[in-house]
Write a structure and sequence with these properties.
mainly alpha; about 5% strand; single chain; three-stranded antiparallel beta sheet; disordered N terminus; two-stranded antiparallel sheet
Amino acid sequence: MRLLLHKVLLVLAICVSPQSSAFQVPHLTQPSSLVQRRVQNGKVVNSKENRIGCALRDFPISTSATRPTLTHLFSNSEDSIVDLELEEEDRYGGMIPQVYPQRWVQLAYLSLLALLSDWICFSLAASPSTFQSVYPGHSAASLIDIFLFTNVASCFLVTDCVAKFGLEKAIKGAAGLMTVGCILRSGLGPLNDIFAGAMGGSAAIGDATEAISSSAPWIAAHTPSYPFILAGTIMVGAAQPFFQCTPPMLSATWFGSDERATSTAVALNFNQIGIATAFLVGGGMASEPEGLSNYFTLISAACAAVTLGTFLQFQNKPPSPPSTSEIEKIISGEEEPPFIDSVKKLFGTPGFTKPFVAFICSISITNIVGAFIDEVLERGGIHAQTSIDLAGAGFEFAILLGGIIIGGYVDKTKKYKSVTLACLATTFFLLLPLGLTDHALGQEPILLVASLLGMGIAAGPIQPINAELAVDVSYPSDETAVESIQQIGGNLFSALLVPIAEIAARQDYQLLPKIKPLASDIRGDVILLMSIAIATMVYFNEFDSPLRRTTADCGDDGSCELPELNAELATNGVGDTTIMSPEVEEALKDLDRL
């Protein structure tokens, strides 16, 4: 018994020792799970009812906490050891992982804001000729380009803004900015002329107004000048990254460890529904110049309603963290570095580049297919515009559906690697029918649409799954910084890929010419996308980094026994030395021998 007590005190002394390599914070200790994680027969053991560890004193207690989960070993004097009984927790302060119904409200607003931002971005994609007839000399494509370039520039600011002002203020500010942009794009009615005069009747505004007036007096009375359209587009483009780069942070802050991939999938892929809405609503309302103003007004009204709800109901953080990993981050008190420093740190983290490349592969494939959806469907035998719009909308909905279903599976199994590889392989094979032309297989609309929907279900989930995986391997990094890096990489690569895909689409290659029933031609753009998918599979297959955040949370959802968390453990039963310091590892091994 005396020897056992000696060993226990040894573990406690290590926890507070400033010389320990794993615990560098003066007078503080690392979160309890880093100490209490034990390894038996080569497996992680992390029981919520049997934790021994160290924690900061005096951090908030959840008022609903009724069951002890973290054992606190220090009283108000920094180094004095107190009773080890678990019931002493309430005496010294503690938190337990807990989720709240408000998390669904948070997810709903962030998803709707993402939907609106992409609806605005692609609002003219279904009716570009209408816009050009109202604004001669300006194209819908150039407006989308301006939006996307503004988006990329704003991605560099999101992380630092959220770190300084908090998630709530950042999202509300971005929502307000997007609403102002929508109002400028939809026209200000009588105020439009007042503002135009206040700006001195510049040549640009005067020329635009004259061009509109000459084309149709009714349009001139109900549509804003082009500079207002441009300014509103830039505002919305600057706001969108705050909805695109924060889903992993929202998931980490509000959702449990077995819900994060699903919630990230919903928030991250809900912008696809915005693109689908642009085709379904914009194709009908904006087919004539007279309907363009009403269409923009509808978007503004929807944006204003969601923004109002966001201001009233969106919150910064819950009363208690939803997972052990979040508790550990709070206890550690680590401050996030500036975004540029985070970039350097993340790319130096083992395993980070694998999900980064997979994310870029997914977003580039879905963006290219979505951008050329008309051409893809027409060369496959679908020519009616209504059918094209419906198929395009179905593709966007399939991306969201796949993210929810497959993301939910990953939440339960933590099979990030195998699921990503399966999705990449499925995407590779389902891309093939999209490039077939002429001959029998190239003129089968059912095969084409089925492949398009299946590809959306397979390719879409790769983004949220690998957003979560990147956060997992780089824990306790800044979730917003991780997603900002992925969005910047994905959008830049997509922008560079568009002209290459346009050139490749004009190339035609014979496929199985000697087998007449299967003979077909295949376009170069699809070959390009298939090459990207297979190259990503080869690179991602080398992923073998530990799931750090999942390991910290495995006691929350009972996943400690999953093979994904034990694959990297040494077969001698000592454990993963990246999780605990050598001193703690040796002390716990001694305890296991008793």
